[in-house]
Write a structure and sequence with these properties.
Elements: E1 2-6, E2 19-23, E3 34-39, H1 46-54, E4 62-68
Antiparallel strand pairs: 1-2, 3-4
């Protein structure tokens, strides 16, 4: 488990909002990599709101799913 600081690509130059996320992908991630995530702050799902109200643990802001590779490395 490592801590990773991430930012949305749409927020570059607009604001400096970043997220600190714990992930198991620490050995695969490098500086300036692109990753795919779920942004739970932007999701509007009723089940997530019910989960937050019924559980004492808070959900993370962002959940990292996988590392995205550039097209030149794809086969």
């Amino acid at each position: 488990m490592v801590k990773v600081e991430i930012a949305r690509s749409s927020d570059f130059g607009v604001n400096n909002r970043t997220f600190i996320v714990h992930t198991h992908l620490g050995e695969f991630l490098n500086f300036n990599d692109t990753i795919l995530c779920y942004d739970l702050n932007q999701m509007t799902i009723q089940e997530l709101e019910d989960y937050d109200n019924s559980h004492k643990y808070a959900l993370p802001d962002v959940v990292i799913v996988k590392k995205s590779y550039p097209r030149i490395r794809r086969r």
